[in-house]
Amino acid sequence: MLLLILQSQSCNKERPVRVPGCIQDKIEAIQQFPKYNPPATVRRYLYRNNYVYLFSSDCCDQFNYVYDKNCAIICAPSGGISGKGDGRCSNFFTVATEETLIWQDTR
Length: 107
Fold this sequence. Notes:
By secondary structure, the chain is an alpha+beta fold. Helix content is 22%, strand content 31%. It has one domain (15-104).
């Protein structure tokens, strides 16, 4: 019985999300600057059958960019003067799925 309980508990643990090296490098670069207000976040989404990474910006008037696994910018679905991003993926938040918080600056 104890074995079943331990097995069921271990199945409920989330596996750590693997992050591409260039995404990790971007996170480490953010940590070299003063903490954003609100704190910086990186979220992973499934978008057009690929995992992408949304980085929050350090100011409300800057774009929040989405990067692919090679750190190429795909678009900015939010941020900027209008708050609506760069217009290249205006449907991002309605189409993207599997939102996962990858990192939040907790300094």
